[in-house]
């Protein structure tokens, strides 16, 4: 459905702005629940309506993919 690329600050590099805020918020929430010496490699969220969001942070950017399942 959409692909979003952000820098580590949450600024949009490519993709739709409507999903950027939620992507950054979900990634920060996931990071809050793991030890500081560990790193989030992927966050996957599926809604009751059949949408799936996958967020994969890398060194300089964050890739997010929203799709219908």
3D structure, described in words:
- The protein has one helix at 20-31, and strands spanning 2-7, 12-14, 43-46, 51-57, 61-68.
- With 69 residues, the chain is α+β, with helices and mostly antiparallel strands.
- It has a 5-stranded antiparallel β-sheet with strand order 2-1-5-4-3, with helices on one face.
- The mean pLDDT is 82.
Fold topology:
Layout: E1 2-7, E2 12-14, H1 20-31, E3 43-46, E4 51-57, E5 61-68
Antiparallel strand pairs: 1-2, 1-5, 3-4, 4-5
The biggest sheet, with number of strands, parallel, antiparallel or mixed sense and barrel status, is: 5 strands, antiparallel
The shape, in one word, is globular
Counting helices, strands and paired strands, the structural category is alpha+beta
Poorly predicted spans? none
Average residue-wise pLDDT: 82
SSE ordering: EEHEEE
- Report the strand count: 5
Question: Rg to the nearest angstrom?
Answer: 12 Å
Oligomer: single chain
* First-last Cα distance: 10 Å
Number of helices: 1
Walk across the major sheet and give the strand order: 2-1-5-4-3
Query: Which percent range describes the beta-strand content?
Result: 35-45%
Question: What labels would you give this structure?
Answer:
alpha+beta; five-stranded antiparallel beta sheet; 1 helix; 69 residues; 17% helix; 5 strands
Brief characterization of the structure:
This protein is of the alpha+beta class and 69 residues long. The protein has one helix at 20-31, and strands at residues 2-7, 12-14, 43-46, 51-57, 61-68. Strand 4 (51-57) and strand 5 form a beta hairpin.
């Amino acid at each position: 459905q959409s692909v979003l690329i952000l820098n580590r600050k949450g600024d949009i590099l490519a993709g739709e702005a409507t999903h950027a805020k939620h992507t950054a918020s979900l990634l920060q929430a996931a990071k809050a629940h793991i030890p500081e010496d560990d790193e989030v490699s992927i966050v996957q969220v599926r809604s009751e309506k059949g949408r799936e969001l996958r967020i994969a942070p890398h060194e300089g950017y964050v890739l997010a993919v929203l799709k219908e399942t």
